[in-house]
């Protein structure tokens, strides 16, 4: 059966927040599985079920050099018995280029390095191989991904009814799932990690009902995708010191958490509100500065 356990919802007891009239919870999707973590499991689950139901035993997907999605797909293939192929942007790369690619290869993924991976090309490959492979889009964001994230929202609502649910946003699939799974007065807030807000907005809008409401902040990108600043690194290290059971990465969850803390301190969230931040994983991509002492 293609299933993993539900993740815990934990209250963050951070002394830095004790004077603010909010409650902050974290949905620990980062600890669902040692390798298929965070939103990756949510987005893959119903795609894997669909692949199996349609008789496919081979998965193909796309990604960049440091793709958490590629790594999670390779791990899901190993865990649930699918062969996996990853088409990677960058023909100068190899499985030795970084830990993400090395681990994907070790999980048995067939890695193919390509000079370009634009929309038209991915579309062509998808059509060409659609009878041999179950093809998952880059980032794993499609309608079935949304269904998996809605399941995460149901888990949250089975425990609390938050005022806000916050998440880091790249391709928009996770935010789309959160928006689709909203009930009552809960608001969804995405923290963009890429500069193009219009692109992200449209990607989310394509996957959610027309009347759905959501917000996207582009104030915490820290320059660009994958870029960091000493302020961000210091924030993450400080957060981890005060909350020693939680680690963050500097590409997604660290930027979102920085944004959430900043907005709490600026009084953005309504008084006495309950906020849930979703831990979307990505910890294999932690940079070494986060683990150096000073
Ligand atoms: C760790 C992590 N968090 C958040 C995201 C953003 O999710 P989405 O692409 O669904 O917006 C991603 C991947 O894209 C990710 O790897």
TrEMBL record:
Entry cofactors: pyridoxal 5'-phosphate
Entry-linked SUPFAM superfamilies: Tryptophan synthase beta subunit-like PLP-dependent enzymes
Active site per the UniProt annotation: 67
Pfam families (alphabetical): PALP
Claim: Nucleus is one of the keywords in the record: no
Keyword Methyltransferase: no
Domain Tryptophan synthase beta chain-like PALP positions: 19-281
Record's keyword terms, sorted: Pyridoxal phosphate
One GO molecular-function entry: D-cysteine desulfhydrase activity
Residue positions where N6-(pyridoxal phosphate)lysine is found in the record: 40
Membership in a protein family: Belongs to the ACC deaminase/D-cysteine desulfhydrase family.
PANTHER family attached to this UniProt entry: 1-AMINOCYCLOPROPANE-1-CARBOXYLATE DEAMINASE-RELATED (PTHR43780)
Protein known as: 1-aminocyclopropane-1-carboxylate deaminase
UniProt source species: Arcicella aurantiaca
């Amino acid at each position: 059966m293609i299933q993993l356990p539900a993740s815990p919802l934990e209250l963050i007891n951070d002394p830095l927040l004790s004077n603010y009239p909010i409650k902050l919870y974290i949905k620990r999707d980062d600890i669902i599985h040692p390798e298929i973590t965070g939103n990756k499991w949510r987005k893959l689950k119903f795609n894997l079920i669909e692949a199996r139901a349609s008789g496919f035993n081979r998965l193909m997907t796309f990604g960049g050099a440091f793709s958490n999605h590629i790594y999670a797909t390779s791990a899901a293939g190993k865990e649930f018995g699918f062969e996996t192929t990853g088409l990677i942007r960058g023909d100068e790369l190899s499985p030795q280029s970084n830990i993400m690619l090395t681990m994907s290869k070790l999980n048995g993924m067939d890695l193919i390095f390509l000079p370009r991976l634009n929309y038209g090309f991915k579309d062509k490959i998808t059509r060409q191989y659609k009878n041999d492979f179950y093809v998952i889009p880059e980032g794993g964001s499609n309608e079935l991904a949304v269904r998996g994230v809605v399941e995460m929202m149901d888990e949250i609502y089975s425990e609390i009814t938050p005022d806000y649910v916050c998440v880091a946003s790249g391709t928009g699939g996770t935010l789309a799932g959160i928006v689709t799974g909203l009930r009552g007065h809960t608001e969804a807030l995405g923290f963009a990690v890429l500069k193009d807000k219009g692109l992200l907005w449209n990607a989310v809008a394509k996957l959610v009902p027309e009347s759905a409401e959501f917000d996207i902040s582009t104030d915490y990108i820290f320059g660009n995708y994958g870029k960091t600043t000493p302020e961000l690194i210091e924030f993450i290290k400080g957060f981890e010191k005060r909350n020693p059971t939680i680690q963050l990465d500097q590409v997604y969850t660290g930027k979102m958490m920085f944004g959430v803390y900043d907005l709490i301190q600026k009084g953005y969230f309504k008084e006495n509100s309950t906020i849930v931040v979703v831990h979307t994983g990505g910890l294999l991509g932690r940079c070494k500065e986060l683990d150096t002492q000073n």
